[in-house]
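Researcher: Good morning. I'm working through a list of sequences from a screen, and I'd like to move beyond sequence-only analysis. For each chain I'm collecting a predicted structure so we can compare shapes side by side. This is the next one on the list. No need for commentary yet; just the structure.
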Amino acid sequence: MDFLKKHYEKVLLGVVLLGLMGVVGYMLVVVSNEQQKLNDLSQNVLHPHVTALSNLDLTVSEQTVKRAATAVVLDFGPPGHRLFNPSAWQKSPDGRPVPRENIGPRALVVTNITPLYFRLSLDKVEQVESGFKYVIVMENQAAATASQRNKKSNYCKLMDSTDAFQLIEVRGKPDDPTELVVKLKDSGDSAVIKKDKPFERIDGYSADLHHPLESRPWLGRRVGSSLSFNGEDYTIVGINQNEIVLSAKSNGKKWTIKTNTAPS
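Model: Good morning. Structure tokens for this chain:
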């Protein structure tokens, strides 16, 4: 007890020092823990954990882009749309009101187009004193007059000429040939007439037409034929397998009327 009485100040100072050392040790542990927490928070902010994205469904977006890339064509013209092209009406020759498009050449309908052939066929062989004559039948459906379109028999020996051709070769037996070769005078080309198959060449077309204002159709009309409707006269100036061309006699204006009808 005497020792404590004599040295209690030292003992008390020692206790205080030990307490201070404990506090310092505790503070070091607390600071270290706080520093670790701060480091963890910094890592989470600067290097966060990112979950990989799943595959996106872009179907709707791709379809939208495709639609945007397709040009939109708006047709405000007749006959499907009348917004900016109102239908005009006028009187027909008999006084009835009809749409304007049913009056002029626009209303003309080509119902059929028929090819016109130039045809040569071997009819028969006749024996004569000097050899053989070959009866070649010529048909020119595209001729200018009806009489010229009739079939015409031509009696030809080898190298004989007609107005349309010259017989230049006989193939096979002279009395029973398999082929005749002729030279056409209009083109200079050679044409082969087989025993069982005539030579054919399309030289033009004829057309069947109808107009809603006319009660009767025009049949078998050719280049040069005249048509009259709605008080106007027209001339057919061209025909091919897909269309005809009309020319107005009053002013020479031309109209092309197409057809989807295949040639017969």
